[in-house]
Amino acid sequence: MWPLESPGAAELQEPGLPLTDDTPPGASEEPAAAEAAETLDSGWCWPCRSSPCGSRVQPAKKKARCPGLGLFYTLLSAFFFSVGSLFVKKVQDVHAVEISAFRCVFQMLVIIPCLIYRKTGFIGPKGQRIFLFLRGILGSTAMILLYYAFQTTSLADATVISFSCPVFTAIFAWIFLKEKYSLWDALFTSFAIIGVILIVRPPFLFGSNTAEMVESYSDHLKGSMASVGHALFAAFTLIILRKMGKSVEYFLSIWYYVVLGLVECVIILFITGEWRLPYCGLDRLFLILIGLFGLAGQVFLTKALQIEKAGPVAIVKTMDVVFAFIFQIIFLNDVPTWWTVGGALCVVASSSGATIHKWCQNSK
């Protein structure tokens, strides 16, 4: 999701120079001092004929924003999200839908005090409730699909495919929001499709030899399709958030996301019969850490978008892919194939190009 974009730091002007004193020698200084005090009290400068006087009233200096702080927050967000994804991969005896339910419960406990403190209510504006409902359903479905992809295919493959979301967002914005879709967008879409094909490696294009994969090809295919589904549903979610704009409180949007996500997870677990408490204490610790790191990533991403433009933030956010490769090699002892590396380069180039192109269009 992309919260509100904050304005940049205001430029400060240097205070004016003091006026030259033309009082003749021997003149009393007390009337001048009294006149100056009266001038400051009234806000009118007699020599300058202006109110207030630039030489008397100096603007308060604002503390300059640390350059690059928003991008640093984005880097922290990418790191926390990647660590949370690693914990999802490490959980053994808990289904992806149940992991999503635990995360929704954890975030709900954090969001409720925020909504009470900000006095925004729990329902939302009347004209926006249908969009909030769709945002909750689509966003939680995207989360479930991503967690399922992490459990069934490699961490790097699932992360890379999920980064095709900006390309689908551009297509859906063209269809539903009537935004412009140029030849550049079509080129970026083709790059993303090529990257996904290189990662999925369908047998009718690459043959039936999939012995180099650690997991079975059927699981790899399920995880890859779940990642594509995540990108599609996440793109729909971004379109809905863009449609709502600034008329809905950010915490209220998350509230619908966690409540409807929990309801969706409970229904799926009831139908499939997959609900069970984790037997291992380590899995319980991982579930808590998934909630903590997911919330930390969300907070830092929100803070980054409050002080930095969305374009640079989206580009630095691709560090998720780098962290996924590093964690997969170090903690999972799984070296990605050259097909995955090539697909990652195509998808990252596609998403970064689409973001930069949209950023340049909006800055004109």
From TrEMBL:
It comes from Pteropus vampyrus. The gene is SLC35G1. This is Solute carrier family 35 member G1. Signal peptide: none annotated. Belongs to the TMEM20 family. Keywords: Cell membrane, Endoplasmic reticulum, Membrane, Repeat, Transmembrane, Transmembrane helix. One of its GO terms (biological process) is calcium ion export across plasma membrane. InterPro entries: EamA_dom (IPR000620), EmrE-like (IPR037185). The chain crosses the membrane at residues 69-88, 100-118, 130-150, 156-177, 184-204, 224-242, 254-273, 285-302, 314-332, 338-356.
